[in-house]
Amino acid sequence: MKALILSAFAAITLTACGPTFQTTSGAAFVADSRGTIDPNIAKVADIEPDLRLPARIGLARVVNGQLTTIPSAEAEMFGELAQTHRAMGEFVPVSPLITAMISDRPGSARGVLNQIRETAARQHLDYVMIYEAGARSRRTNTPFALADVTIIGGVLLPTRKIDVMGIGQVMFVDTRSGYPYATVSTTTDLTGFGRSWSSHLAEDDLRNRAVADVVKALVPQVDELLVGVTQRAGRRG
User: Fold this and answer.
1) What is the CB neighbour count within 10 angstroms for residue 76?
2) Most buried of the four, 93, 171, 227, 230, by CB within 10 Å?
3) Distance between CA atoms of residues 50 and 26, nearest Å
4) Contacts 24+ apart (CB under 8 A), 47-50
5) Distance of alpha carbon 108 from its chain centroid, rounded?
6) Secondary element (H or E) of residue 29
7) What ranges do the domains of the chain cover?
8) pTM of the model
């Protein structure tokens, strides 16, 4: 989604942006315009927060622009976060199989995000934590070309000092309304993975290891995000 594109900035080892949070009223935003707002913008803004815990929270993994199954290494990392934040409710993986069953929408960035919400709705999940992890390389003949960040890192490119950049971002959204309560992002230098690429190392294995490294860099930021979401949430009756 172009509205969620990361700002381009240089990173030598690791760069992380602290979480940003939103709980503002769409009605108040439109009312504050005093009648001067574009009708299309008013329609987009017409959304209200409804953040209540505990809840059923989905975890959706996006790689190469597609909802994918969460590998065991990443599941373990997020499982530890879920245990730390168990007071928030139940954390449930969003299933690509269910997506395939209910949706035939083409895989555009907006389409994938809507597919995730639809799948979460079928799984009766109140909120979804969507994470995209991937890499960008200054060279096209590497395995990282198949782990591209197509949704939330659309224009972020490696610098002259970094040959391969890992990119990750998380968004915590309301399944019912699409209200975006929080986002967080990180980048990390994966140049070492690029140097290790050779014919004896399977491309899939290298990509998975690189993406896992990005997710590992995301975990502390996600922990902070979940703390902030909890602080801003009301109690579910």
Assistant:
1) 11
2) 171
3) 12
4) 47/177, 47/178, 47/179, 48/177, 48/179, 49/22, 49/23, 49/24, 49/25, 49/174, 49/179, 49/181, 50/174, 50/176, 50/177, 50/179
5) 15
6) helix 26-31
7) 2-232
8) 0.82
